[in-house]
Design goal:
- The chain has 288 residues and is α+β, with helices and mostly antiparallel strands.
- It is 34% helix and 25% strand.
- It contains 11 helices and 14 strands.
- The strands form 4 sheets. A 5-stranded antiparallel sheet has the order 4-5-10-6-7. The protein has a 4-stranded antiparallel sheet with strand order 11-12-13-14, sandwiched between helices.
- Helix 9 (230-236) runs antiparallel to helix 10 and helix 10 (243-256) packs antiparallel against helix 11 (267-287).
- The longest helix has 21 residues, at 267-287.
- The protein binds flavin-adenine dinucleotide.
- Flavin-adenine dinucleotide binds next to strand 2, helix 2, helix 7 and strand 10.
C-alpha cells in the first residue's frame, strides 16, 4: 500500500552545517535523503520506517570528484553517471566505472548516489565490491567533526554499519598509485540490465611472473554484507595462478561465503556462480 504523504516531512536546509545540526539535535529522527532511489521505493510500497528527512541534494560540497596526488575523493552525492564519465576514474579505478554502468538504468544512474548505495547497506549493492578491492576509506562528518574509516569493516551486519545517526558520509577516498593491478568485475543477475545482483564479483591481482603478489576478492549477495574474501586472498597470495591453485581456491572461497536462498536465487546457484567467477577472474588475469 502507498504511504500517506502528509505523514512525512522533508527539510531542505540551505547550508550543510544546518543539516548536520538537525541530525545531531534529534539523532535517528531526521534521516538523510540523497537521490531517493532507495527511499522512494520504500515510500511507494508503504514500507518507509522513518517520517522525517533532510534533503542533501543541494549540497554541492558533497558532490564531485577531486583528484589529489595521493587520492581521488568522490563526494557522497556523486551519481553513477558522473562516475562513469570521469576520465581519472576510468583510467585508475575502472571497476568502479563498470559497477556504475551496471547499476540500474539511466534514470537511476542519473539520480542514485554512491553515498546512498553505501549507506543503504544492501548486501546486493554493486559499488561496494569495487570499493573493497580498491582499499577505499570513508570520510564521515557530523556537527562535532569528521573522521575517516576504512571501508573494509564499515558494514558490521545486515544493514548495520559504523555510521552514527548524526553522521553523514561525506566522501569516499581511493588511494592512487597502487601499482599495476589486473582487475575484473562481473555482475550476474536475471537480465543484463535493471536487475538486482544474484552475485556481484570484483577482483584485483598484482602478478609477478605468474605469482600472485597481492590479491583482492570482494563479492556481494553471498553473505549478510558485501564481503572481502580474506581467507581466499590469503591462500592465493604468493602462489602461481595455475590450475591446481585455482581449483583449491574455489574450495576455500566456497567455505568462506554464506549465500542464502531468497526470491532472486538459491544458495547453491549463488555459491557455484561465485566460484565460477573466481575461476574466471584468476584465469583471465593470468593470460592478460
Ligand atoms: C529501478 C532501480 C534500480 C536499481 N538498481 C540498482 C543496481 O543495479 N545496483 C545497486 O547497487 N542499486 C540499485 N538500486 C538502488 C539505488 O539506486 C542505489 O542504492 C543508490 O545508490 C541509492 O542512492 P540514493 O542517493 O538514491 O539513496 P537514497 O535513497 O537517498 O538513500 C538511501 C539510504 O542511504 C542514506 N543516505 C543517503 N545518502 C547518505 C549520506 N551521504 N550519508 C549517510 N546516509 C545517507 C539514506 O538515509 C537512506 O537510508 C536501484 C534502485 C532502483 C529504484
Amino acid at each position: 500500500m502507498r504511504s500517506f504523504v502528509p505523514a512525512f516531512e522533508m527539510k531542505t536546509p540551505s547550508r550543510l552545517d544546518s543539516a548536520l545540526e538537525l541530525l545531531s539535535r534529534e539523532p535517528g529522527i531526521w534521516r538523510p535523503f540523497a537521490g531517493g532511489t532507495d527511499l522512494m521505493v520504500l515510500f511507494e510500497s508503504g514500507k518507509l520506517p522513518h517520517r522525517r528527512f533532510v534533503n542533501l541534494w543541494n549540497f554541492n560540497e558533497l558532490r564531485g570528484i577531486e583528484v589529489t596526488r595521493s587520492h581521488i575523493a568522490i563526494g557522497a552525492l556523486t551519481t553513477y553517471t558522473d562516475i562513469q564519465r570521469d576520465a581519472t576514474l576510468q583510467r585508475e579505478f575502472p571497476l568502479l566505472c563498470k559497477a556504475a554502468a551496471e547499476t540500474g538504468g539511466v534514470a537511476t544512474q542519473n539520480r542514485g548516489t554512491i553515498g546512498g548505495n553505501i549507506a543503504n547497506g544492501s548486501p546486493a549493492a554493486d559499488s561496494p565490491p569495487a570499493l573493497l578491492v580498491f582499499d577505499a576509506e570513508l570520510e564521515l562528518i557530523s556537527a562535532s567533526g569528521s573522521r575517516r574509516v576504512s571501508y573494509h569493516g564499515f558494514h558490521t551486519g545486515y544493514k548495520q554499519m559504523d555510521l552514527r545517526a548524526d553522521e553523514l558520509i561525506a566522501r569516499i577516498w581511493l588511494p592512487r598509485a597502487r601499482g599495476a593491478w589486473k582487475t575484473y568485475f562481473r555482475k550476474v543477475g536475471t537480465r543484463r540490465a535493471q536487475a538486482i545482483s544474484k552475485v556481484c564479483f570484483a577482483g584485483g591481482v598484482q602478478l609477478d611472473k605468474g605469482i600472485a603478489r597481492d590479491v583482492r576478492v570482494a563479492v556481494g549477495s553471498v553473505a549478510p554484507i558485501v564481503i572481502r574474501a580474506v581467507r581466499t586472498e590469503e591462500y592465493l597470495r604468493g602462489k602461481p595462478l595455475e590450475a591446481s591453485t585455482i581449483s583449491h581456491a574455489r574450495k576455500v572461497f566456497a567455505d568462506e561465503i554464506a549465500p542464502i536462498d531468497d526470491i532472486r536465487s538459491t544458495s547453491r546457484y549463488r555459491r557455484t556462480v561465485a566460484q565460477n567467477l573466481l575461476e574466471e577472474f584468476l584465469t583471465i588475469a593470468n593470460t592478460l
